[in-house]
Amino acid sequence: MLPSSGALGSPIELPPACKVGVGLGVAVAVLVSVGVGLGVAVVVLVSVEEGMGSGGSKVFVGVLLGAGVRVGTVAVTGGALSWVGLTGVTPGVDSDGVTVSAGATQAASQKTVSKSSSNVVCFEQDLFIVSSWLGKVLYIALCVAGGQSSARSFLLAASLSQIGLKEKWGGLAPTMEVEMSFPQLYVLGSGTALPSVERDNTSMVVDTPGGLWLVDCGGSAYQKLLRLGLDALQLRGVFLTHSHPDHIYGLPALLFHLKLAGWRSDGPALPIYGNVPTLAMARRVLGAYEIDRWQPPTEWHELPEIEAHGFAEDDDLAWFSTPVSHSRPTLAVKVVAKSGGHVLVYSADTGPCESLLRFAAGADTLLHECTAVEPLAGHSTPQQVGETATQARVGRLVVIHYDPAYLLSTGETLMFIRKGGFGGEVFFAEDGMILSLDARQGDQE
Ligand SMILES: [Zn+2]
Ligand SMILES: [Zn+2]
User: Fold this and answer.
1) Which ligand lies nearest the alpha carbon of 330?
2) Closest ligand by atom to 378 CA
3) Global pTM value
């Protein structure tokens, strides 16, 4: 049986940013059970304003679908947010960080998100990302029926196209929403060489009208593309930065998966780019599996260790590589979007180096690794990342190959990046994040 209306009927607190006033809220909820863990609730809320804005009283009516008692606070939170969306109130987070909540259990500090409350905060943000009513309802229903993992898959597939750059550590940086446009970069993995619960090894894919380009290949790239709603059979190229396992170990599986998914033996060859030792390693690993014809036809393009080397170009993008400073020969990569001219550079694994400064100079977006807490050959500390971003005068910085589970917290990392001199926007990549590459931004001197 579904819950009593107690939770949904609790006073709903609205943050000051909503400009509705705290007022006196009375919610009456009627739940009709349609199955275990699923329900329909009709909420009527009468809010009497207390001198904020026009004053007087207002009546709001909302309908909630998919709220259930089994997940308690999560479902209730979703319901409350849906209600807010229906009344047209923009969610607000004031400096003290009290977000919209129902049942008085979800007050969460946006500045000090604790482990226990972070899921709730993410859930709330996710709901706002799902802009349509149907999407909200489906998302809530999935949360109830299948838990947050299935809901997360839905969210990524159905709604992330609305988001230019998603940021989940409230208070550290803004969330930007942009029109859906091409090209876009999807972060498949954002973590260090050691995966964690939240982050797999770093890899990414650029989505263009002409197809997909994969950069590095840890984990199951095929499954990650599925989860993002991207068609892996649209892959048009793979770039490998270097031969460490966290950057290439998924390649044999990807090729195998592509064949199983229907890539024809007489279909187009998949170009794979990298420096000589990286491709040699990748081919040795691939050979060990003896999958023979159970892979797409491939073209192996060995790239020279020279700076700003243009290695591929199509109607949408132009690609360049440059050697950087790591324990194995490594290439950073640059992609230039022909529509709009956005320039994105991914540092790959590297310590501070002149070649990267030249390569990233004036880039709109720099994805930079941040693997070390103390100076470490071949990797970068947060302060060094800040110094590189500053000296290269990039528009925005996205920290990647980074994991707060093992390294400094995002707050501490940001502090050191600022100490490195970088005053621009800083984002922390996470698995599933999308970056829109459709316009130029930042300092382009
Ligand atoms: Zn790595
Ligand atoms: Zn490495």
Assistant:
1) 2
2) 2
3) 0.62
